[in-house]
Amino acid sequence: MVGIARGTGLSTSIALMAATPRPAARRRDRTQDSVVDDRVSSARKALLEGVGAEIAASFPGITRLGGQVVAALYLSDGPRSMDELSLELGRSKSNIFANLRGLEAAGIIERRRSSGARHDSYTLRGKYPDVVIGAYIARLRRVVHDKQALCQRALTLLGDARGPDADSLRVRLSDLSRKYDHFAGYMQLLPAIEGPVDLEQLLELLPRDVLLLAGAAARKAIGLDSAAPPPPAPPPPPTSKKRA
Prior knowledge:
With about 240 residues, this protein is mostly helical. The chain is about 65% helix and about 5% strand. Among the domains are: about 40-125, Winged helix-like DNA-binding domain superfamily/Winged helix DNA-binding domain (Arc Repressor Mutant, subunit A, Orthogonal Bundle), CATH 1.10.10.10; about 130-200.
C-alpha cells in the first residue's frame, strides 16, 4: 500500500510538472503579450496625435489636447468624466476642462449628468468624423456671415472719402464684399447645419456625373491643366448580399 501511495504520488507530481508552463514558456508568453500591447499603444497614440493636430488646425481656440479628447471619446465605449480623460491623456484637469469648453462651444461634444451622479460626463455629439464635419461647416457659415458684416462696416466707415488711398481701399473692400456675398448665396442652398453630417452617405447619394463635374470644376478653379483627362469615376459603393 505504501508503495502504491508513493507511486501514485510520484505520477501525480510528474503530471503536475508537465501541465505547469515552464519559465521559458511563460517568458515567451509575456514577451508576445508585450509586443501586442506595444502595437495597440502605438496605434492608439498615432490616432490621438493625428486627430489632435486635425482639430487644432480646424478650430481656433482648441489645442491638440482638445483633438486628443475627441479621439479618446471616439475610442471609448461610453461617456467619460473629466477625471477619466485627465488620467487617460496624462494632462491636468484645468487643461482638459478648457478644451472641453471649446469643444462643447463648437458643437462637437455634449455634457451629460446621469441621475445621482456627482460629476458631469462628456461624449461626442454624434459619430466621428461626422460630428467634426458638421461643426466645421457650421463654423464656415458663421465665418462667411461675419466677413459680410465686416466688409459692410468697413465700407460704411470709409463713407464718401476721396483720394487715391480711399479709392483703392473702396475697390478692394467692394470686391471682397462681392465674394463673400457670392459665398453666402451658395451657403443658403444648404440647410442650416447644427450637428453631425454623414459625408459618406452624402457622397454615395450624389450621382457620379455630379461628382465628376465637381472635380473638374475644382481642378479648373485651382489652375490645373484643363486639358488633362478627368480622373476615373469612383467605384460604386459596395452592396451587401442578402442571404437566401
